[in-house]
Amino acid sequence: MSNLRLRVCSLLDSSDYGLIGIGFVDSLRKAGIPVQWVPLKRLGTQSVSPMAPDEVQACLSAIQQLGKVDDLAGLVKSTAASVNHDAVFLCIEPEYWPRLLESGKRHAGYVLWDSSRLPTHWVRILEQTDAVCVPSRFTQEAIQRSLPEMPLFRIPPVYSAGHAQVSADAGEALRSALDLPDSTFVFYSMGPWLPQNNQRDLVRAFAQAFDAQDPVTLVLNTSEEGLGVPPWYSKSATDALLQIELDRLMKERNTDLPAICLLPYTLNGLAMEALHHLGDCYVSLSHGTAWDMMAYLAALRGNPVVMTKWGGQCDFLGSDWPGAIDYRLQPTPVWPPSAPLNWPDQRWAQPSIDSAMARMREAVEARDAHEARARRAAAEIARAYPETAIVSDLLEVFRALSAPVGADPATEGANLS
Fold it and tell me: Where do the coiled-coil regions begin and end (predicted)?
C-alpha cells in the first residue's frame, strides 16, 4: 500500500461529482498518497477533456474554497505532476469513462445514481472497470439490480473535517444583502433546475403551506437556466420558469404568496457556506438522489432537513427523521429526451405535496425542538463518517485491485456490499 500511486479524474465544479472528487483528492494527499489530479471539463453529453491551465485558473477564481478546501489552488498545483500511477479513479458520470480508461491500468469508478436501476447502456460501461464505488446503499442497490456480480464498495463522500469554514457573520451579511428581516424563518434549497430536483413541486408545496403574512422565505439557489415540463424539457431562464409556477399558483389560490428569493447562479464555496449559515431549514422535494451533498452539509451544520424519504440521504438522515416527506414510486419519464438515461421501466419517488407542506409547517411551529434534534444528529453524522476511516476504506479498494488475479475482493479488500 505504501507504494500505491493514483490518478484521479474528476470535475472541478460545484456539482456533486465535483465536490466529491475534490474531497477525495484532498484527503488522499493528506494521507500521503502520491496522487495526480486531472481536472476535467465536459464536452457535451459523452465527451470529456482535461482542463487547460488557463481554464483551471479561471475556474478557481470563480469557486473559491469549493468543497471547503482551504487552498484549492494549492491542491491543484500540488497534484498536477505525473506520479507514474498504478490505478485510475474515475469520479465522473459513467458516460465519460470509456474516454478515460487506460490500457494496462486498474480502474475504479465512482457512481451516483438517482432512480431504481441503472441505465441499460451503463451496464457495459461499468463492466469495463475493475470495481465500482458508491456513496450509499441506495445507489448500491440500484447497481445490484443490474449487475449482481459487480464488486461494489460503499465509500461515502469526505466533506466534514479539517476544511475551511466561514463565520456566522457571513450568514448575517447575506441576510442583509437579501433584505431579510431577522425574524424571517429561512427555508433554502440548492441545485440546478432539473427534472430530478423537482423545484416545481418545491415551489408549489411552499406556496401552499404558507401565505404572504407568514414570516417565512424560501431562498432558492439554482442554475441560470433550467428545463421546462415534459416531454421536451425546453430550456428557459429559471426566473421565467419560476414566474410560470407563481402565476399558476396565484390563479389557483387568488391570494398573495409567501416570499421566494431566487438566486439563479452558481455560488462559490464561501457563498455556499454563508447560505448554510443563513438558512434555518434545508428543503428538497427531489425525486431521488444518490447522496445530495448540500443536504449532507446542511445536516452537518446542524440545520433541520425537510426532504423526500427516498434516496441516499437516508443513510445519514435515517429512515424516519422529523423532516421526512412521504412519497410513492412512479415510472420515470424519458429523460433527457436527446440521450435518455431514464425510461419508464425505472422508478423514482413522487413526493407528497401534503406531506411536504406538513413537514415545512412543523419546522416553523416546532422550531426549537427540530433544531435541537438536528444538532444532536449533526454530531452523530460527524462520528459516523470520519474522514480518516473513509479514506482508509477507499485505499482498501485499490489494495483489492492490486491483489493477485483471482483474489476475492470481498476478502482481500473493503467490499461493503
Answer: 353-380
Per the listing, cell 473559491 goes with 64
Q: How many CB atoms lie within 10 A of CB 166?
A: 19
**Same domain membership, residue 392 and residue 379:** no
pLDDT for res 2: 56
> Per-residue DSSP letters for 324-339?
EEPEEEEEPP-BSTTS
d(CA 338, CA 283): 30
pLDDT of residue 151: 83
Pairwise CA distance, residues 240 & 371, whole Å:
34
**Host H or E run for residue 6:** strand 6-11
pLDDT, residue 323, reads: 97
Contacts of 109 (CB under 8 A, 6+ apart): 89, 90, 91, 94, 97, 126, 129, 131, 132, 133
Q: Do residues 341 and 404 both lie within one domain?
A: no
β-strand pairing of 235-237 with 327-331: unpaired
Q: What is the pLDDT of residue 15?
A: 85
Nearest partner of 210 among 357, 356, 351, judged by Cα: 357
| Number of independent structural domains in the chain | 2
Sequence-separated (6 or more) residues with CB below 8 Å from residue 200? 229, 241, 245
CA 102 to chain centre: 27
| Mean pLDDT by groups of 10 residues along the chain of 417 residues | 85 88 92 95 85 84 58 87 95 95 95 95 94 96 92 86 61 94 97 96 98 97 94 94 96 92 88 92 98 94 97 94 97 91 96 98 98 96 93 92 48 33
Cα separations in angstroms, 58 against 55, 62, 63: 5, 7, 9
Residue 68 pLDDT: 52
Nearby residues of 176 by Cβ (< 8 Å), 6 or more positions away: none
- How far is residue 309's CA from residue 313's CA, in Å, rounded to a whole number? 8
Closest CA to 224 of 272, 267, 189: 267
Q: Do 183 and 141 belong to one domain?
A: no
Angle, CA 388 vertex, CA 385 and CA 399 arms, to 5°: 110
Supply 85's cell numbers.
Answer: 500511477
Residue 79 sits in a domain whose CATH number is 3.40.50.11930
Strand partners, 48: 42
